[in-house]
Each structure stands twice: as structure tokens, then as C-alpha cells.
Design brief:
heterodimer, A: 207 residues, mainly alpha, Fumarate Reductase Cytochrome B subunit, two-stranded antiparallel sheet, 8 helices, 3% strand, globular, B: 246 residues, alpha+beta, Sulfite Oxidase, Chain A, domain 2, 2 domains, 4-stranded mixed sheet, 5 helices, 8 strands, 20% strand, binds protoporphyrin IX containing FE
Chain lengths: 207, 246
Amino acid sequence: MVAASGADARKTIHPLFIRVTHWVNAFAIFVMVLSGWRIYNASPPFGFEFPAGFTLGGWLAGALAWHFAAMWLLALNGFAYLAYGLVSGHFRRSFLPISLRGALHDVLVACRGQLDHAPGRYNAAQRLLYIGVILAVIIAILSGLAIWKPVQLQALTALMGGYETARRVHFFAMAAIVAFLIVHIGLAVSVKGMLAPMFTGRAEAPR
Amino acid sequence: MKPPRLVSLRGVRPQIARIERRLFLKQGLSLGALSLLSGCTLKDDDAVDRLLFAMSRFNDRVQAALFDPAQLAPTYSEADVTTPFPFNAYYEEKDIPRIDGEDYRLRLSGLVADKRPWSLSELRALPQSSQITRLVCVEGWSAIGKWRGVALRHFLERIGADLTARYVGFKCADKYYSSIDMPSALHPQTLLALDFTDAKYGYPLRLRLPTKLGFKNSKFIGEIFVTNDYPGGYWEDKGYNWFSGS
Ligand code: HEM
């Protein structure tokens, strides 16, 4: 997609639809994770609690109110993103082909301080991570539904291993998303020229 | 000055109820506002709180639509029962109300034809059924328990309750109160439980419905009423979602 021509030709490397859904999703995920930590603290299944200062909602009822409000934003926005990605060919163009070996190579290269990143093209490690986090969000939503409605949606709850197992699946989906975010945000703010195009859509065309 | 004209309150009563309810919510709201956003630097917390409450009401409607009156909660075997069953209330275990079963009378009010109070032996004379189901707490934990008693549906029919009314409310001896929607009240697994592991779980009468979270299962029930006016509840008025279906 060439947006302009001329001496300072700049390419649209992130379509507007992707940029909008990405930032709406980022907001929804932050609300879900931080309120989720407060909900977790009400009855922690593992032997620790999240520091209250890093949670959202103030108390259990507040956290639940945030969680059950933001879940609609997360699900509707995520659905729009997936539909657009599949129908427009964005996923095929940007995420395929995937290659485990390529991803490993990218990571090793990155460890030596040479990041394989060109504007408008995701490297193999990015592709794998993006597909992975999309799956993690889908699992978070499904396990969330399973523990929200263990009677009405009992087939789903059974699929998730029953109520108590589904609760843990939900927790580990969150943990996977947070692990992704540490790497993702770390790279986004440290790699030169990566963050701005996710807002403007444009980057200098590679020379 | 002309004497004030006598007007019928009939027409404005729903409005008054609405205003009262709004004031009431407002109180719950500002209570919530303080706590909902503590640790958050948002200045206009009132707008955020209003949005969260509006979403909670929206979720009430979604859950009512999702509720399938024929969908039964999974049941378990005696061997699955959690022992000891967790005790949970807004007060400590030592403060549970002690009720004399001999003197006990269940009071009835609201849209009910026969408001005669019921003794325990009269309740026991009604057909009894039992269930072993999972109780899911709003805090996230769950436990499997066994309860036995009268199907609430049977009882409501028996007392001539208006089954087209919207709410069934409960007032409890521990000053707890709560309410449920009529479709959930008529669900086959919704019990007025008389028998359970220990008196501390709500002697002599408690509600047990596996289709809602634990806090919707009122204990130490003293009065049941049927109404079309939203009755709220102890936790619900503090900001917990009212429908809280499972
Ligand atoms: C403050 C938080 C975030 C920042 C700063 C950020 C930054 C970015 C940037 C700069 C890109 C483009 C990368 C490139 O051009 O190579 C991107 C893409 C992406 N991010 Fe984020 N992100 C954030 C939060 C999230 C969250 C919460 C998720 C998911 C849970 C997420 C998932 C993705 C995905 C899937 C893509 C690829 C989008 C596509 O092309 O379809 N991001 N992000």
C-alpha cells in the first residue's frame, strides 16, 4: 500500500484499522489484567498476592465492575481485529509464513545486538509471538466465560477441565499475556522507529 | 392562598420509587466511587463510576437473557463433598444468629395470596428434595456441598405468590438481605434448604440455588417477599453485580 509518491515517499506500514484496534486492545488488556489481579487477591489459589498498588478497582466489587465492563471492549474489539485480519489478508501477509527455525535465528541474532527489524515487515520471532498472544487472549476469554457461567456454559467449563481447572487456565493465560507484554513493550520502546508508526501508520520507506 | 389540592399519589408513585432508587444508587455509587477508584488518579471518578454501574445493569440483562430455565447445574456424589465446608459471611463465625427452631416462623409479604407464617414442621411436611452441587463464591473459590429442602417453586405456588412478579426477596436474621429474579426462583434446583451440614450455614432456613454465586444464597431467612420493585441486597447495594448468575 503506497500512500504517497514523490521525493519523501512514505509507506503506510500499519493500516488504520489495525492501529485503532491495537490501541483499544492495549487499553482493554491493561484494565483486564490489573482488575484481574485484584480479583485474584480476593482468594489467591497460588501462594502469593499481587501488590494492591498495582491493581485496579480498589476492592473486589470495584475490580469485578471494571473486569466485567472491559471484557465487552476486549471481546468486541478482538472480534473486529480477527475478522479484519482474516478477511483483508492482513494476517496472511504479515504473519505468514511462520518458521520456528527463523524465530530462533532472530532471537539469537537479537542477543548479539543485531535486531532483524524493518518497518512494515514482522520478523519470524515477532510473527510467532503475535500469533501466540492472540491465542493466549482467545484462551483467556474462553476460560473467563467458563468460570463466569459454569452452569449456563457448562459444556465450555467441562472442556476447560471443570471450574477449578478453568480458573487456573485463566490465570496462566493472563501470565502468558503479561510475559508477552514485557518483551513486546520492551522492544517497542527501545527499537528505534518502531513505536511511532503504530500511531501514525507511516514510516520512512526502506532504502 | 388556595388550600392545596388533594392529588392521588397513585400516578406519581412509580416516579417517587424511581427517584428513591436513584438516590439510593447514588449513595451506593459514591460509596463505591471512593473505593472503586482508590489508587487511581482519575479526577472525574463520578463519570467512571456511572459507566461501571451502567455496565453492571447491562450485564444483569445479558445474564437474564442467557439464563436457561431448563439448564441444570452439574451434580456430584457424596464423595465429592468438600469438608470442612468454608464458612463465609460479612461477620465472623462467632456472631451467627442463634434461632430457636420451636418458636421460628417464616414470615411472608408482598405479592402473596396467603401470608400466614410457616413453622418448621409445616415446612418439613412439604415434599423435600436434595442436591449435591458446587457453590461458587464471588471471591473465586468454590466448594461442593449437600442441601435438602423444599423447592422454592413449590413453596411459591403453595402460598399463591404472583409468579409473574419480577423479584423474590429475602430478609435474614443476621440483617443480611438479598433478592433474585423470578425465573431463577422457579428453577428446579432452587431450594429453601432445611438440612445442611451445620447450623452455622443458615439454620433454620436458607436459600440454595446453584445457578447463582454464593452471596445470592441468603442464610438465616426470616422473611420472604415477592415484589416488582427492585429490592437490591446487602452486597448488591455496595456495588456487586445484582444478577450474579453462574
Ligand atoms: C503499551 C502497550 C503496547 C505497546 C507500546 C505496543 C506496541 C506495538 C508496536 C510498536 C507494534 C508494531 C511492531 C512493529 O512494527 O514491528 C505492535 C504490534 C502488535 N501488538 Fe502491541 N503494543 C502494546 C500492547 C499490546 C497488547 C496488550 C497486545 C495484546 C495482548 C499487543 C499485541 C500486538 C500485536 C498482535 C501486534 C501485531 C499487530 C498486527 O499487525 O496485526 N500489543 N505493538
